[in-house]
Amino acid sequence: MHAQSQLLAQGRWRWYEPLLWLLAFVAPALLPGHALIVNEIAIVALFAVSLDLVLGYTGIVSLGHAAFLGLGAYAAALFAKHIHPDPLLGLLVGMSAATVLGAVCSLTILRGTDLTRLMVTLGVALILMELANKLDWLTGGSDGLQGVLMGPVLGRFEFDLYGQTAAWYSLSVLLALFALARRWVRSPWGATLMAVRDNPLRAMAIGISVPSRLAVVYTLAAALAGAAGALMAQTTGFASLDVFALDRSADVMLMLVIGGVGWLYGGVAGAVVFKLMHDVISAITPQYWTFWIGLFLVVLVLVGRERLIRPWLWFGPRSRP
Length: 321
Description:
Blueprint: H1 2-10, H2 16-30, H3 35-55, H4 66-82, H5 87-109, H6 114-134, H7 136-139, H8 164-185, H9 188-198, H10 200-205, H11 210-236, H12 246-259, H13 264-284, H14 289-303, H15 305-308
Helix pairs in contact: 2-8, 3-8, 3-11, 3-12, 3-13, 4-5, 4-6, 4-11, 5-11, 8-11, 12-13, 13-14
């Protein structure tokens, strides 16, 4: 009982967290010219949180997480173009499609080593990319799925050219799913995930069903990634083959390296830093922005995240919300 109450206490929102989220929601209004980048950050932050569920909390290494992002994007885009333009319905469709794929793929990660899992997850993303390329009558092939027009959010809020509605929509979905993910990992069930990550054999010895934990968390993470893909397609009105690309999975891995794994805010922080660096550096040196991000990662590894970002440690990985 004491351990359970301690977990529930750790899961409570701290006083500064609502302020951070309030600042995020105010940003599109205070900086209307940067609403589009806020929208992009919210989407990739949700994608990073989804990967952190499988990498940080269960230790599953994946280089094909973009498979769920891409399927969610295409499912939501096709639903909006051919069935109904309502954003929330499309979001549910994208999440549902990614959830089904995640449930099927979870069967493959229960066998083999980390290298096997890495190759299988990468293979799934490549298969989906090739299918989207070949089924050009449905997906648009290499030209992408264009002309995706979305209806107003909740029937009232039209998507505008400046991206303010898109930013608030994506931030709202991010906050809702982040709160759910936080609830999962700070529950007794979430504690069993970390037990599986640290020592699967010991977890099995004390009665934890390791295969079921891995399958469930992989499926949940796929649903979150599918939601990020749906948001991407809905707010841009476009879905292309690059949503399945290895670059997507590699970039989100870098975000977790920057922000830290096993800490949900690490995905959010990593997404903010990565996207802002990308936006600023590519504007200065479009050809060499990857060099500077690579240099930053090298310094981050050599110096250490705690020393480099010491002023942020008061709400950082030590509290692990």
